[in-house]
Amino acid sequence: xxxxxxxNVRATFIEILKEAHQSDTKxxxxxxxxxxxxxxxxxxxxxxxxxxxxxELEGGLKIEIRKIVAVNGIFLPEYAEC
Length: 82
Description:
By secondary structure, this protein is mostly beta strands. It has 1 helix and 8 strands; from the N terminus they run E-H-E-E-E-E-E-E-E.
């Protein structure tokens, strides 16, 4: 069985995403939008003051934070063994 690094049960990716944005570090994401997909890029904006917080990558791609299941190799606990 393949085990992965995971967030704490009550944690979110927001701090990891903010740190990557502030340091202008490329993020490698896995998102679940009706199926798993890989996305990578530099974060242009993090919008948390609305009903569906999201990040916007260079090029304009917007990704709802709730759809992110992994950031830079760190997974949500429910995706730890997929």
